[in-house]
Structure formats: structure tokens, C-alpha cells
Amino acid sequence: SANTLPGILVRFEDLVGDAALRAETLRKICAHLRIRETPAMQREVQVRSGNSAVTYQLTAEDRTEVMARTRDAAGRLGYEF
Hints:
Blueprint: H1 12-16, H2 19-33, H3 39-48, H4 60-76
């Protein structure tokens, strides 16, 4: 179809959710890319999920600005503020 993009939507929540959801998301990514899933990929997703070396603190004004600029796109993707 003309509206189909050559990609898949991967939600952040699906990569940092529970182990079964992470595994399923990795399988979908590999299938889409037509590559073989490896144990190294599984380990990397497990180690990286929910792990950030840097913590960013947004001010209330920053959060308001981000929400204002992303509200339409977020709504189309099923997110609500």
C-alpha cells in the first residue's frame, strides 16, 4: 500500500518491559530486518533495557514544551499526556 513505510514501529516500552515482551520485540525486529537473532543480541537488550548512565531532569517548563510539540504525533501513536 502507498501508506506503508519500509519500517516497523518499536515502542520504547516494548524494549524496557518485562523479559517476554523484550524477547518478542527483538524477534520482531530481527524478522523485519531478515537477520538471525543471536544470544549476544538477547544479552545486550537485557543489559541495556532500563539502564541509563545519565539521568536527565526536565523542568516543568521543559515538560510543557515537549508535550505541546509532541502531542499530535504522540496521539497518533496511542500515547496520551
